[in-house]
Amino acid sequence: MSKKSAANKPQLDFEGQRPNEKLLFVFRRHIIAMRKGFYMLVIPLVITAIPPLIWQYNLELFLLPVAGFGLGLILFSYQFILWYFTIYIVTDQRIRQVTQRGFFGKDVIELRLSKVQNISYNIPGFSGEVFKFGTIVIQTFVGDLVIHKVEHPDEIYNKLQDAVNNVIEHQGEHEEIAA
After folding, report:
1. How far does the chain reach from its first CA to its final CA, in angstroms?
2. Contacts of 90 (CB under 8 A, 6+ apart)
3. Is pLDDT of 138 > 50?
4. What is the pLDDT of residue 9?
5. What's the half-sphere exposure (Cβ side, CA atoms, 13 Å) at 137?
6. Residue 109 in contact with residue 97, Cβ under 8 Å?
7. What is the per-residue pLDDT across 71-108, written as a single tens digit (0 to 9) for each?
8. Minimum mean pLDDT among 8-22, 32-46, 56-70, 155-169: which range?
9. Which of 47, 54, 159, 179 holds its CA 20 to 30 A away from the CA of 30?
């Protein structure tokens, strides 16, 4: 994403942006969605730390936890890349979901704001309240776009509602002018 100045306000551009399309906001899933990556960091370290604890007199075994940490770091970095490069872009016309698939693949799903029927969110119990994450469901004629583990789902929900309402109001203005 690069910055471009327009009317004293910098606007971010993204790949696939259309002319006269304004970026409203960008969000991603909560860091808690990466818990699998944290497990992949800790588990090899813990497993490789057991032999040096059992056979303390063999000094070469003390290198095992270093190797376990290195392996865990590689596995963690893969999960981090998947999390970091999966983003949701909301413009004044559409919602664009870019999902990272492995190191080189990605999936892109676009949803026009004018097609949105309903938006709802859910905070899943105590952990969702404490860590401020939840699920947002965007319903359309075609199907639902479900976004799990969104950070501050209430704020994202309000921003999405505002964007959809602006599109509906804008369509109403165009219909009045055409009539």
Report:
1. 40
2. 23, 24, 25, 26, 27, 96, 159, 160, 163
3. yes
4. 45
5. 8
6. yes
7. 999 999 999 999 999 999 999 888 999 988 888 888 98
8. 8-22
9. 47
Q: What is the DSSP letter of 113?
A: G
**Which CATH class, in words, describes the domain spanning 3-29+86-178?**
mainly beta
Going by C-beta distance under 8 Å and a sequence separation of 6 or more, which residues neighbour residue 19? none
> Alpha-carbon distance 115 to 139, whole Å?
9
| Residues in contact with 122: Cβ distance below 8 Å, sequence separation at least 6, in sequence order | 134, 135, 137, 153
Cα 87 versus chain centre, distance = 4
**At how many degrees (to 10) do helices 35-54 and 64-84 cross?**
180
**DSSP state, 138?**
E
The pTM of this model reads: 0.77
Model pLDDT for residues 33-60, shown as the tens digit of each residue: 888 999 999 999 999 999 888 888 888 8
Collapsing DSSP to helix, strand or coil, 8 comes out as coil
Tokens of 50: 């057991």
DSSP result, 26-83: EE-B-GGGGHHHHHHHHHHHHHHHHHHHHSTT-GGGGGHHHHHHHHHHHHHHHHHHHH
